[in-house]
Amino acid sequence: MKLKWQLFALLAFILCLGTLTVQPVHAADDSLQRVKDKGTLVMGNSPNYPPYEFTVNENGKEHIVGMDIDLGKQIAKDLGVKLVIKKMSFDSLLVALETGKVDMILSGFSPTAERKQHVDFSNNYYVSKQYLILNKAERGYYKNRQSFSGKKVGAVLGSTAANLVKQQMPGAKLVTMENAADLVLALKAHKIDGIVKDSASAIAYAQSDATLAAMDGKFSVSSAEVGNAIALPKGADSLRLAVNQSIAGVQKRDLFNKVYLKNAGKEIAKTNATKSMWHYWPYFAKGVLYTVGISLVAVVIGMLLGALIALIRLSHVKVLKAIFTAYVEFVRGTPLMVQVMFIYFGIGMFYNISAVVAGTLAVGLNSAAYVSEVFRGGIESIAKGQTEAARSLGLSQHDTMRYVVLPQAITAIWPALGNEFISLIKETSIVSIIGVADLIYQLRVVQADTYSGVLPIAIAMCLYFILTFSLSRLLHHFETKMKHA
Q1: CATH among 3.40.605.10, 3.40.50.300, 3.30.565.10, 3.40.190.10 for 26-124+229-274
Q2: Can you count the helices (H) and strands (E) in the chain?
Q3: What percent of the chain stands above pLDDT 70?
Q4: What is the pLDDT of residue 483?
Q5: Looking at the chain, which residues constitute the CATH 1.10.3720.10 domain(s)?
Q6: Whether the Cβ atoms of residue 478 and residue 410 lie closer than 8 Å to each other
Q7: Residue 472 has what DSSP assignment?
Q8: Using CA atoms, how far apart are residues 51 and 407, in angstroms rounded to an integer?
Q9: Any idea which of 5-14, 167-176, 304-313, 326-335 has the lowest mean pLDDT?
């Protein structure tokens, strides 16, 4: 028992501290040369923030467009490399930069003092005001930001706007969400009374939805708070200087006002002209494909590894039994979202693992812990007399398990396994946080493109129901056959 808990403590210590204690070390600043040598500039981006970055559907293919994308392309062109955009949730961007998953973050980032403790920033490339988005029917009730005392005001989690609500809107209750589309949906459903966003984005939302209005919040802010800059790794001075040169060239030609904003406006106008959900069926189809694919692979991992863990835990090999007991307890005691991020960002520090592989592996390993308990319970539920009778007939321990115990156990645990498989399809939605284009990720994309909140959610719900109901009927069919076998 003592050995078991020692191993458990060691495993927990390694997993919790692994990503915190290991940091990539570079003897000298070769950040610019490394980008040139590999021929790509990897840009971290969360494309749900029009007009800075958002997606459009052209001939059934998804394209990321916006002011930040145009700037990223210009920087890559100036460096003589190819731009590679890595999509992920906004709150995962800093971790991606710190762990070397991306070379820079260009996604409406403000160079706040808190962020400067972890990363370096370029010069500001664009400065905007902070506006309030309201329901147009309530526009007359609010004269300024002070009018929101006692009201709920929304802002994107971790954004400059969230800090401004806390600091300069006395009496207002801050409500944060990860996605701007969710905030707009909450506003239109009267769950919140206003949203603080930068002027370019707020005006774009108001122009795209006749029920919304935008007003200048007249916040007192510094250029660091309202300016947008590019985040770079600490000490990447050569890359930062090169990026600053590109920014200076863009600002000298006034490309943001003359070209980039106009390009974004045209794309938003085209999106508004094709808001039909049918236009976005390739997005949902792609999401279903990723969701089903990840679920199938994760089920195989979970079944095989789960069965192996169960057999080891029922064995008499104390060391292995203690290790896998610790594994099961640790996995069941930590959120799947944390496990996904640990595998993608933690292992990514040593090996460049893709988001799809990381997400699938995390879901599979998580499932294995639960499946192992299902198998273990099923095997232990078989009467000992079955084993004794088989051994008395001359069957080996291996054959007894294979031909007598496991067939009966699988019949007994099939409903529980079915529930685990169905849950797995829904749990794969968590992989969207690292940029895997599953059904939830595509839902977010469509929301950002169409400025529509409820309808994409309803479509995703129906698709999930079709998947889970179909699987439920299939599992029930096999369960019935087992009972009559």
Answers
A1: 3.40.190.10
A2: 21, 14
A3: 89
A4: 66
A5: 279-483
A6: no
A7: H
A8: 58
A9: 5-14
